[in-house]
């Protein structure tokens, strides 16, 4: 074997050894990364935060803007189905006599408290007639750090006159699922929205995903369902939807302040 061939042989062998070493190193790096991710997820998923028995929904005020609420009693069977007692059902009435029913179901640890409307509405005896989405802008002056889930609309910024030094109110937009349901001869719009940590979404599966990711990373991972409904007086669904959106715009900043 000539000197040139010998050099080529040994250089090629060295290169092959380096490649093999790098391949082994990559395997070790990937394995270590997977172990680290598994450890983080396992630690987050099975560790429990220290929470009090405080019922957060009980602190939501009975007066929201010009809407005045009254409690609707929840029976024990419903509490058992929801798997949490941190729940309110209230009817809010404004000065014009418009009525909207607010239901908030909340838990710091249990994602199962949130039920999908396609399951819970028929289970409650309602027929789903139509499904749409409703965008509800609301003020976030007292909560400037709220984020929206990817399925929600982008942040909406307020405007101010040229040269004005007044603060610009920040606007967020919550996207509700609006189910038109029938109950005998009556129809009503039913709005659904979900919250996990600092994210809002109309999608219950997205909320569950956010819940488990936040829990794995040991971030705030509460689960909440916000439901609004009202009967369509004289069958006027458009007016019923408008009333529900008006109440939602008033209620959202209040609810976010009381649901961590």
Quick description:
By secondary structure, the chain is α+β, with helices and mostly antiparallel strands. The protein has two domains: 1-47; 56-158 and 168-258.
* Major beta sheet summary: 10 strands, antiparallel
Q: What percent strand?
A: 25-35%
Helical residue percent band: 25-40%
Over all CA atoms, what is the radius of gyration? 26 Å
Order of secondary-structure elements: HEEHEEHEEEEEHEH
Shape: globular
Number of strands: 10
Structural class: alpha+beta
Mean pLDDT: 75
Poorly predicted residue ranges: 2-19, 35-51, 144-169
Q: How far apart lie the N and C ends?
A: 77 Å
Number of helices: 5
Walkthrough of the structure:
With 260 residues, this protein is an alpha+beta fold. The chain starts with a helix and ends with a helix. The protein has two domains: 1-47; 56-158 and 168-258. It has five helices and ten strands; from the N terminus they run αββαββαβββββαβα. The longest helix is centred in the N-terminal third of the chain and has 44 residues, at 3-46. It is globular and about 50 Å long. Strands 1, 2, 3, 4, 5, 6, 7, 8, 9 and 10 form a ten-stranded antiparallel sheet that branches.
């Amino acid at each position: 074997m000539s000197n040139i061939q010998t050099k080529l042989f040994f250089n090629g062998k060295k290169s092959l050894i380096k490649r093999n070493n790098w391949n082994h190193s990559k395997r070790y790096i990937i394995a270590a990364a997977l172990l680290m991710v598994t450890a983080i997820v396992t630690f987050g998923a099975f560790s429990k935060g220290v929470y009090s028995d405080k019922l957060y929904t009980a602190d939501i005020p009975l007066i929201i803007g010009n809407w005045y609420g009254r409690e609707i009693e929840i029976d024990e069977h419903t509490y058992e189905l929801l798997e949490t007692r941190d729940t309110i059902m209230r009817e809010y009435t404004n000065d014009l006599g418009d009525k909207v029913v607010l239901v908030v179901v909340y838990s710091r640890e249990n994602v199962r408290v949130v039920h999908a409307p396609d399951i819970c509405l028929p289970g409650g005896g309602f027929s789903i007639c139509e499904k749409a989405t409703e965008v509800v802008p609301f003020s976030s002056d007292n909560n400037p750090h709220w984020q929206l889930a990817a399925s929600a609309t982008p942040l909406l910024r307020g405007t101010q006159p040229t040269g004005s030094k007044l603060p610009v109110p920040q606007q967020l937009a919550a996207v509700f699922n609006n189910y038109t349901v029938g109950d005998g001869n009556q129809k009503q719009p039913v709005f659904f929205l979900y919250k996990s940590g600092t994210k809002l979404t109309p999608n219950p599966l997205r909320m569950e995903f956010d819940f488990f990711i936040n829990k794995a990373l040991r971030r705030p991972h509460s689960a909440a369902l916000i439901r609004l409904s009202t009967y369509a007086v004289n069958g006027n669904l458009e007016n019923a939807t408008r009333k529900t959106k008006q109440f939602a715009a008033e209620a959202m900043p209040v609810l976010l302040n009381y649901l961590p």
